């Protein structure tokens, strides 16, 4: 007998620009039996990445958390007993009331979350309302994108964006710090279509990523020197007159000052010494970029991504790079300009969802990058006495991992983790709460790599006793006696009201993806109209000048750069990058057996010169270390990195490594110049062969 089947339209929730449409097939017993890309999604067009192709393995994983748990062993042992939701909620509320009423006050309670799900409701709605109403410490969620966002905002007033579908019109495409073929695969398809129409694809990256390998030209820039390269390109553009003077005159501020700086301070020979590229390659790149319409028949497009800004000068690097299209006038043309994120194109009613008006005056903010310092009492304000973790796995993803783990071991720290699995962080929790997967709850999604809105329709009932974020905070709010009107709206009501500024209806988004009300081949800055104070692309920023900072784009080196920190480089001479393994998304999916098998164990890619100097053979086990910590990996000797650079792919859970740590044992909690973001790619290490 043929089983009765039904299909449900859903959305991938993970931290990726693509926000793919999905179609879930559910059998008569209510079990999801198939998941595939939605062929009717105008941008993602029916295919998923290899991670999400295994999403049902995640939903029905034998290790899914199905019931609330209370710790019975030492912190870190991961031993728990089952309790009821009522018991768990009462205990959390009682501890929160006790801490809030103590000498430390409610700011001793710290929420910790990020982008384990990108849905509007599960990412930021009732959770924010709850912690704001409680008076808990605020969390600066800067770990991924904030440096680049702030840098872009200084120049453009918004994150660099175009209509991604219009990129088929570009004829010189630069993946600048973007492994697009892996981390933005549907935009790679657009780039590939543009190449079939005559485009040239260039990748600027210290690492020969899959994108670099598939590009027409790879420029292996030294880590953290992208701003210097951009200024060297500006030098050549201004020197040769490969500029759109009309665009500069009408739509930019400070062009003469920027020209003077680039010509005086960033000649190709100097930039070559900083970046590790040859002066000839810098000249060639500037010529092809600046003359793309003449040489290739169309505009140039820069696709930036967030690896570009994960170093001490990362915010300024993005600010500088996004100035380039205003010099050449590429913002005028469909598909030309720069693309970092489309997220600010979405007119959500975030204030309604999050209710920042509930925040008590004077509430402190804790930067999530500095969780190690927060847990050790090294930040201003009261000590952290309670930690509520959701949408994140800080024991794996935070920098300075060893100090984070030591902080999580504190017996006086009350820790709650809401997750689908007993993660590394959950091992240290006092209470663990089971969370729904994307197939089990309703949510609303935009994207930061396209212009479509779509609701995620629940396909199956919640497994076990798992609950979505919104329901958890409703339960806690009731137990705390908070005002019902703040928490008792349904998820569908929350979603509908958050859509009001967009003019879109919730019913339409439940039926499938709906494009924002923007024209085809949208060119937001074709006639200037930048959302800056001046309405222009601000090469010169009066705001930065008033703050006592350099108002013009400039090169700010990494904190740990061999050229500026020879003392540190004498002990730790190798610059290490830690991009995500294609089989994982940060630490998500690291517990799915098929994907863990595909990734294999930790590796370290190292140039033959550096390997030979250390007596390291291909396939040999090595130790990577600095003053912060160490981890073990298997050496991969080859030409995917420059001399002086090593790469390890992350992020693995502690239980799946031989030494119980991952690469974040060596990364720093130092912050970026703008936006106070993370500096994961600003990390000097040494490598030794194991006997």
List strands and helices in order, with pairings.
Layout: E1 6-11, E2 21-26, E3 32-37, H1 55-59, E4 69-71, E5 80-82, H2 85-100, E6 109-112, H3 120-123, H4 126-134, E7 138-140, H5 146-156, E8 172-176, H6 180-183, H7 185-196, E9 200-204, H8 210-214, E10 217-219, H9 226-240, H10 245-251, E11 252-253, H11 255-265, H12 268-275, H13 279-290, H14 292-296, E12 300-304, H15 314-321, H16 324-328, E13 337-339, H17 350-354, E14 365-367, H18 371-375, E15 386-390, H19 394-397, H20 401-408, E16 414-419, E17 431-434, E18 443-445, E19 452-456, H21 469-480, H22 491-498, H23 506-511, E20 514-515, E21 537-538, H24 542-546, H25 566-569, E22 574-577, H26 593-599, E23 603-606, H27 608-613, E24 621-625, E25 630-637, E26 645-647, E27 684-689
Parallel strand pairs: 6-15, 7-14, 8-9, 8-12, 9-10, 11-21, 12-13, 15-16, 16-17, 22-26, 23-25
Antiparallel strand pairs: 1-2, 2-3, 4-5, 4-17, 18-19, 19-20, 22-27, 23-26, 24-25, 24-27
Helix pairs in contact: 2-21, 5-15, 9-11, 9-12, 9-13, 9-15, 12-13
Structure description:
The protein has 691 residues and is an alpha/beta fold. It has three domains: 69-144 and 356-515, Rossmann fold; 147-340 and 524-546, Dimethylsulfoxide Reductase, domain 2, CATH 3.40.228.10; 566-689, Barwin-like endoglucanases (Beta Barrel). 30% of the residues lie in helices and 16% in strands. The chain is globular. It starts with 5 loop residues before the first strand and ends with a strand. The mean pLDDT is 97.
Q: What attributes does this structure have?
A:
691 residues; alpha/beta; Rossmann fold; Dimethylsulfoxide Reductase, domain 2; Barwin-like endoglucanases; 3 domains; six-stranded mixed beta sheet; 27 helices; 27 strands; globular
């Amino acid at each position: 007998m043929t089983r009765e089947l039904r299909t449900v339209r859903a959305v991938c929730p993970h931290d990726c620009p693509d926000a793919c449409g999905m179609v879930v097939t559910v059998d008569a017993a209510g079990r999801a039996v198939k998941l595939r890309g939605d062929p009717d999604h105008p941008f993602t067009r029916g295919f998923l990445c290899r991670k999400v192709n295994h999403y049902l393995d995640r939903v029905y994983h034998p290790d899914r958390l199905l019931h609330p748990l209370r710790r019975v062993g030492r912190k870190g042992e991961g031993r728990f007993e089952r309790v009821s939701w009522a018991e768990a909620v009462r205990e959390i509320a009682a501890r929160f009331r006790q801490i809030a009423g103590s000498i430390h006050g409610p700011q001793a309670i710290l929420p910790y979350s990020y982008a384990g799900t990108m849905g509007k409701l599960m990412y930021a709605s009732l959770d924010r309302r709850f912690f704001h109403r409680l008076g808990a410490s605020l969390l600066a969620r800067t770990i991924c994108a904030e440096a680049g966002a702030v840098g872009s905002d200084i120049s453009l007033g918004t994150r660099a964006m175009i209509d991604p579908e219009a990129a088929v019109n570009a004829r010189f495409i630069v993946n600048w710090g973007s492994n697009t073929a892996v981390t933005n695969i549907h935009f790679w398809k657009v780039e590939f279509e543009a190449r079939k129409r005559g485009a040239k694809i260039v990748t600027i990256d210290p690492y020969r990523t899959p994108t670099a390998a598939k590009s027409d030209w790879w420029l292996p820039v030294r880590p953290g020197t992208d701003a210097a390269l951009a200024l060297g390109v500006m030098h050549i553009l201004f020197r040769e007159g490969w500029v759109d003077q009309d665009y500069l005159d009408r739509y930019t501020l400070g062009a003469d000052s920027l020209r003077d700086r680039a010509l005086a301070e960033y000649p190709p020979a100097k930039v070559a010494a900083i970046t590790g590229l040859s002066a000839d390659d810098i000249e060639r790149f500037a010529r092809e970029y600046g003359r793309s319409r003449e040489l290739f028949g169309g505009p140039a497009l820069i696709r930036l991504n967030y690896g570009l800004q994960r170093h001490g000068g990362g915010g300024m690097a993005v600010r500088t790079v996004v100035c380039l299209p205003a010099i050449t006038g590429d913002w005028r043309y469909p598909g030309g300009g720069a693309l970092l994120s489309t997220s600010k194109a979405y007119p959500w009613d975030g204030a309604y969802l999050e209710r920042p008006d509930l925040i008590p005056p004077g509430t402190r903010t804790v930067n999530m990058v500095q969780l190690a310092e927060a847990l050790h009492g090294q930040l201003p304000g009261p000590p952290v006495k309670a930690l509520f973790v959701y949408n994140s796995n800080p024991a794996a993803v935070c920098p300075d991992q060893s100090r984070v783990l030591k902080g999580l071991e504190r017996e006086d720290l009350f820790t709650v983790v809401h997750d689908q699995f007993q993660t590394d962080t959950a091992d240290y929790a006092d209470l663990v709460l089971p969370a729904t997967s994307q197939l089990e709850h309703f949510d609303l999604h935009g994207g930061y790599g396209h212009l479509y809105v779509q609701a995620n329709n629940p396909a199956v009932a919640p497994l076990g006793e798992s609950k979505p974020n919104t329901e958890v905070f409703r339960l806690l709010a009731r137990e705390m006696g908070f005002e019902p009107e703040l928490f008792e709206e349904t998820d569908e009501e929350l979603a509908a009201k958050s859509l009001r500024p967009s003019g879109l209806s919730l019913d339409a988004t439940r039926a499938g993806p709906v494009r924002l009300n923007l024209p085809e081949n949208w060119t937001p800055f074709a006639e200037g109209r930048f959302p800056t104070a001046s309405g222009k692309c601000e090469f010169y920023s009066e705001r930065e000048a008033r703050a006592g900072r350099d108002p013009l784009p400039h090169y700010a080196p990494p904190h740990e750069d061999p050229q500026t920190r020879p003392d540190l480089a004498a002990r730790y001479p190798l610059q290490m990058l830690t991009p995500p393994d294609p089989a994982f998304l940060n630490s998500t999916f690291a517990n799915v057996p098929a994907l863990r098998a595909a990734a294999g164990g930790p590796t370290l890619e190292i140039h033959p010169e550096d390997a030979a100097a250390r007596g390291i053979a291909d396939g040999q086990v090595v130790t990577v270390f600095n003053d912060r910590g160490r981890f073990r990996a298997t050496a991969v000797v080859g030409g995917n990195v420059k001399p002086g650079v090593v790469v390890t792919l992350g992020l693995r859970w502690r239980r799946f490594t031989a030494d119980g740590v991952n690469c974040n044992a060596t990364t720093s909690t130092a912050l970026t110049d703008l936006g106070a973001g993370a500096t994961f790619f600003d990390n000097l290490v040494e490598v030794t062969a194991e006997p």
